[in-house]
Amino acid sequence: MKRRIFLQLPLAAAVLSDASSLSAQSTGKSRLVKADADRDDRPFKWVDAIFHVKLSGKDCGGRCVIFDTIRPEKVGPPLHLHTDCDEWFFVREGDFKFQVGNETMRLTTGDSLLVPQNIPHAFVKTSEGPARLIVMHQPAATMEEYFRSVITTADQSVEGRRALAEKHGMRILGDSLKAD
């Protein structure tokens, strides 16, 4: 083995073994996203909510992703869980009903809720008029990629959405909540 290659092997091994800590490092750059704007000027609609990405996992080494969602309708996601991230909610406006495990709770403006990974949960807007909910996944995992791909996937069947969710660390367990 040539000496040059021999000397490079320990360096390459160190970099490869430390790849997980590299992904947790910040980009070192600040990122301003204006009110009612999306980080990439590409807001998207999912389950009748408009999503603005406020902080991408790309901005913080994958530590989290934050969405500001505007919810005009009384709908929400099906009962599901995340196998690779916690999910945190902050109600900016409006009222919501949440199911977390076997518990049902009501959240209103200013309330927040942490749902640890592997805990089944669902929510639905219950108030009249538009509501706003900040949603953070920590770590970011592939949640941003999931939302951007689910809206463009050809297979919108329950089975197709379930398979896509599984690829992104989510397990769909049941139906959506009703607003009452």
List keywords for this structure.
180 residues, 4 helices, 37% strand, three-stranded antiparallel beta sheet, Jelly Rolls
Structure, described:
This protein is an alpha+beta fold and 180 residues long. The protein contains four helices and eleven strands; from the N terminus they run ααββββββββββααβ. The strands form three sheets. The chain has a six-stranded antiparallel beta sheet, covered by helices on one side. The protein has a three-stranded antiparallel beta sheet with strand order 7-6-9, with no helix packed on it. It has a two-stranded antiparallel sheet with strand order 4-11. A hairpin with a 2-residue loop joins strand 6 and strand 7 (103-108). The protein is globular, with a radius of gyration of 19 Å. Residues 1-24 have low confidence and may be disordered.
Summarize model confidence as the mean pLDDT: 86
- CATH-assigned fold name of the domain at 62-174: Jelly Rolls
Shape: globular
How many DSSP helices? 4
Structure summary:
The chain is 21% helix and 37% strand. The protein has 180 residues and is of the alpha+beta class.
Annotate the secondary structure layout.
Blueprint: H1 3-17, H2 19-23, E1 44-46, E2 49-55, E3 65-71, E4 78-82, E5 86-93, E6 95-100, E7 103-108, E8 112-115, E9 121-125, E10 131-138, H3 143-150, H4 158-167, E11 170-176
Antiparallel strand pairs: 1-2, 2-3, 3-10, 4-11, 5-8, 5-10, 6-7, 6-9
